[in-house]
Structure formats: C-alpha cells, structure tokens
Amino acid sequence: MDGTLVDGAVRVGGDARQRFYDARGYGRPLDRNRVELAPVEAAHLLSRGDLDAVVDEREGSETRLDFREFLARTGTALRFTVYRDLRDRGFYLSPAREGWPGVDEGDVRRGAPDGARIDFVVYPRGKGPWDDAVAYRIRVVGEREAVPAASLGGVVLAVVDEDGELTYFETDADPDIGVADDEGGDDGRGGADAIDGDDPTDDAPLPAGVDADLLEDRVVCYDADDLYERRFYGQRLLGRNAESGPLQLSLVEGAYLAQRGVLDVESDAVVGRGRDVEGERFDRRLRTYAALRDRGVVPKSGFKFGADFRVYEDFDGVESLSHSTDLVRVLGPGHDFYPRDLSLDVRLAGGVRKRMVFALTAANGQIDWLSAARLTP
Amino acid sequence: MDGTLVDGAVRVGGDARQRFYDARGYGRPLDRNRVELAPVEAAHLLSRGDLDAVVDEREGSETRLDFREFLARTGTALRFTVYRDLRDRGFYLSPAREGWPGVDEGDVRRGAPDGARIDFVVYPRGKGPWDDAVAYRIRVVGEREAVPAASLGGVVLAVVDEDGELTYFETDADPDIGVADDEGGDDGRGGADAIDGDDPTDDAPLPAGVDADLLEDRVVCYDADDLYERRFYGQRLLGRNAESGPLQLSLVEGAYLAQRGVLDVESDAVVGRGRDVEGERFDRRLRTYAALRDRGVVPKSGFKFGADFRVYEDFDGVESLSHSTDLVRVLGPGHDFYPRDLSLDVRLAGGVRKRMVFALTAANGQIDWLSAARLTP
Fold first, then answer.
1. What is the pLDDT of residue B191?
2. Theoretical Cys-Cys bridge with B299: which of A62, A217, B263, B292, CB 3.0 to 4.6 Å?
3. Across the interface, which of B159, B216, B304 has its CB nearest the CB of A167?
4. Separation in Å, CA of A28 to nearest CA in chain B
5. What percent of chain A is helix, strand and coil (3-state, nearest 5)?
6. Is the pLDDT of residue B184 over 70?
7. pLDDT band for position B190 (50/70/90)?
8. Contact at CB, A301 and B88, closer than 8 angstroms
C-alpha cells in the first residue's frame, strides 16, 4: 500500500480509514475512507512495513520513497524518535496540527513559532483521537536547543539526546510551595518590599537588635540561640555539635534579618557586601529567600546539591529536623534552559528525592515558580 | 594566658611550647618555650578558652582582643571554619606558611597568589607537625570564588558554603582512564591527528564505506549491526528493543567514524554540521571522544547525567553491557570552576557511583584530565 505526499502530508486511500485511523489512531479521516497522515505518522507506518512507499508527485515526476528516503526528504528523524517511542510504550498520539484530532485551538496557538510549541498530543493508554482525553502535551527538543523558561509549564519536554536516547521532563508552572500569602499563588511578592517582621515558622515575634558583625562574606551574631534552634537561621560558628555560641549567617540571611530590624547591623551594608560578591544576582536571591520565608518554609544553602537553596517544607525546630523537600535554583525571567543543564538539575534532585523548583525572579520582585521532574510515560 | 599579635602572627610565652605545640600540634616553636601561632590557630585557642585574649600592640597602644574582636580584626572567619572542622575530626594541621612545620618549599611556592594556593597541611590522624607525613593539602575557598582548573590536582578544596557548611573535594590530575597510548599518560593526543582506523575495543578491523545519511543533527547508517553490537557506536533508530535496522549515530560518533573511512559520508560535512550546532565546542568534544576511544574505553552520551559523555571502562559487547564507570565533562584548558557547579557535578556522579572526570581540551588537541570526588576527611 502506497501513500501520496501532498502539501506536507501523506494521503492514503483504499481502506486506510479503517486500517490506520479507526484501528490504530493514525492520521485524520478524509472523505471516502481516505486518511491524511502527518509525515511522522507516515514514517512510522513505513518503518513497520504497513506502508510500502510514499509517492512524491512534486515537480511533475513521480518518485517512490522508501523509509530511508522519506526520512531524508521530510526531515522528521528527531520527531520520529519520539513518536516511535510513545507508540512502543502503548500510546496513541496525534501531531499538533491545525484541524488534527485531539488538538484544540490552544495547542495550535501554542504552536506558533515564538510561543510554547506543542508537537504531539498524547492520549491516555487505551484512548485515542476519537476520545476526549489528553494524557500529555509533548514538545520535542534536541539536546542543544535553547528552551525559554517562559514557554514551560503544562508541557512535557521530550529531549532527544545526541545518541538518540529519550528523556521526558514534565513541567509545572504552579508548584505548591508552602502557603502563598495571597490568592495570586504564583506571585512571590515580598522580599525588600514586604517587610513586616513576621515569621510564619513561629508565632512568637522575632527578636530585635541582636548583636552582630559583618565579617568577610557572612554575618556573625551573638546570643541568639533562638534564631537557630527555633527558626533555623544560620549555623553554629563553633560547629554543628556545638550547643551554643555565635551563629554565622549567610549574607542572604543576614540581609533578610537586618532589613527586619532583627540584627544590629546596617542592612544596606550587608546588601552591599552581597552585591560586591555576586552582583544583582544577590538581589534576586534575597527576593526569592524572602518569598520562601513568607510562604512559611525554611530555605537553607543548596550548595551541597549545586542549587541556590534547599527548602524544608515542614520545619518544626532544628532538634527534629527532617530531610529538605525541594531544591530551588534562582534564575532571571528571560532564562533559556539548555536541556543538558535541566537534565543535570532534575537528575540530581530525583536522586535525593527532592523536587526541583526554579524561581524565575524579575527585577521588580515578581517570581514565577516552575518545577520540573523526570517522567516515564 | 594571653598572646601578642606581632607581624601577622601571635606569640605566646610561658609553657606554650609544651602546652600547645608538643601536646597538640599548634604553631611552631620559637626560643625559650615560646611558640608562634598563625591567626587561625590563635582563633581556635581563643574559641576554646585555651587563650584568654590576644594583645594587639600596634600603634603604640595596647588592645586586648577576645575571640569575637580577634576574628573581626584578622579576617580569619572562613579559614577558621575549616581549621575548626578538621580539628573536630581529630586531625592536627599547620597553616602553609614559610618556615612552618610540615610545610615544604613546594607548598609555599604553590602558595603564590597566582599559583595553586595551599592553606593547610593536614597530618594523618595520630601524627603531627613533628612527623614526616601529610594526609591532605587543603585549599580553602568560598562558595563564589573562581578556581582555575589548572590549579587543581593533588589538592583538596575545602569549600565553605554561604551557610558556613563545609564540603571537601579531592582532585587528581592523573586519573587512570583506560589505556593511555603513550607513556605521557596525561596527554590525550589523538583525535583528528591520529587516525589509524584501529579500534582497541575489538581486534577485528572496523568496516569501511558503510552506507549512511547525514540527517538533521545525526547520522543514520544502514546494515552495520556490528558497529552497534560489538563496539557500541550509535543506537537503533527503531528503538532499543529492535534487533536490527538502521543505526542513528551522534554527530561526534559520525565524524569520528567518517574520518576513519568507516562511513560513506564526507567527514567534513559531519564536522561542519557539528560546528553549526555547537561551534568550536564540537571540535573539543570530538577530540575528547577520540582520545577516549584511543584509550580503549567506550564513550556514549552523558545527557542523562548532564555530562558530555558517560564512559564504559569495561566494554565487551552490547549484550553484556554493565554500568558506565565515569562521567566526562569537556572544558577549555583555561576553565574556571565555580564551586557550586563542581558540587553539582560531583554530587550527581557520586549518587550514581561514577567518577567525575573533566577533560581540559585545548585547541591543539592536548588534553589534561582531572577528576574530582567528595572527600570525608
């Protein structure tokens, strides 16, 4: 059985509708039992021998293309890898083309070149294009393709690495972190603009005017055991096993507390030291830190995991500390992800059973949260 | 008991030699039972109450400094954290200062500002400055301090993160990877300059003139099962479970094989495509790939681990594939490591029980290998 390449799609006659669409969810039905297949669907049928060849009638002359020639002609090798893999896993799926089954207007709009492209709409196992259910919306990307952070959320990235192996990442633009301080949810307002001296991790008010020194890239404070034991600010300067003594605070912790009048150091001096060390990234990190504290969770250094912060969602005193639950990386709102960097972060977080969260933090304090996780469809 | 701050060191009289040097390895002996302490040693004795104060006689007037004032005056908070931690772990250690015990000329030379600085010489547990044995040479760095790759190897980085927690990384400039093709060992010559058609993973010669197409960012080749099964080039285009059919090769694999006449595609075209995709990084990656193949190991994409390559040191056919043993990241020879990036790589590699190896690959093909691993002293 042959197909015919017309206007970037492959038409097949005979009993193609029953054979390909009704029985196995390929393509979309046309009149008279014909179907129209996207190139990647036709490539899959060619690879299985269900189609013998595709006839290209361009330029007047007819050429019969086999699988190899068809792949080369249509440039579908990357998407073919993903399409085949999902078929192998038992899914039916449709290319996100206008007028294709299962594809709504939003998917096509998101398919605009500079929007959040969708390549495939995948149906739940056992369902197909004739049902009204979607399991995944998939975007196919090569290992070296930049992916704008703003285009993520609600889409599964299918990354084809250079060896042709696949990794799926699901992305969520509305991860639930602690208690948002307003109905906006996504909006991490706060930081330098929302100084209220409260700390949701504890009902008692924070202390005020604690004796402290700004030393190198940290703040050392004295006689403030509560800050550490009940709220997990800082670390004991004399080591983890020390039961008392001075606390060393990071510049972010120090600036946060100084801005709230807790420490007797100039907050401008601490912020200035932070900016000396890491420029405007310091302000973004401070805003993210404040937004997390405002949500009632406890951020600490994520250094051991290569992240900005590790986050304790359920903190109830240092004595009963459990594992942290999230890793947070602070990025600019215009950040482009490179799939390999994303793979590194998500793999590490998965290995330590934490959620990987990105805080896309703008200069004005707006924070868009985004989580990413490995998915096995 | 008080010390006196003189020329950046602290002198202590009385029975200080017996009490501090002989019994516990602090400082270096002077005449008449006196000792000289580096500031970080004095800070440690102050923090323990073994010294009451340090008298600063600068500017004519005398000031008695307690622990807090001494830390602020001498700027030793960062190094104090590391010194204290190693003492807590049961080690004696000396600051790497000229004329200090346990410190040889090489350490001091490496202590030059633009060289590979050493901060502490750590003795094996149970040994001290009066013995002739060194367990670790330690360099203290802050979380945000750039560390030149060329300064690593044979040194342990003690990274103090922003919360004041410590992470130790040991670095080795001579990791053993496969079989070096010359006595140089460190020198990964080969790549485009050493094309000999041999493949140490198999005694049989590689095939020649295999039918292949350059498609998008990969090479697809036909009728070359051996390349995959016996030597692990490429992946099955029709999926991992396919038992035959076309192979998709990465551009690096494709370029390597095309340069050796194995594939019937122009190697320049493949290399050109690679450069289109990732610029001169492609050449560096190709050189590293070739050097690894020349050493008899099998590199494959490291994407799932966020690295350039994962490496199988013992490869004996795809049928009996075991876990890969190393992760390789390709960097330029002038690369500066940021401790947080290093932490991410080393933590991930440790989590999957692989060794993290960096290939510092120059434009001329010279490769300096460097491994890094987490250390618990």
1. 40
2. B292
3. B304
4. 24
5. 30, 25, 45
6. no
7. very low
8. no
Which range, of A14-23, A194-203, B352-361, averages the lowest pLDDT? Answer: A194-203
Share of chain B above pLDDT 70, in %: 90
Most confident option among A114-123, A201-210, A256-265: A256-265
Query: pTM score, two decimals?
Result: 0.89
Residue whose pair of structure tokens reads 């290399």 in the numeric block = B271
Cα A61 off chain centre by: 48
Tell me if chain B has a CB within 8 Å of the CB of A217: yes
pLDDT band at A197 (very low <50, low <70, confident <90, very high): very low
Helix axes B339-351, A339-351, angle to 10 degrees: 60
- Say if the ipTM goes beyond 0.90: no
Q: What's the rounded mean pLDDT across residues A310-323?
A: 90
CA distance B291 to B288: 5
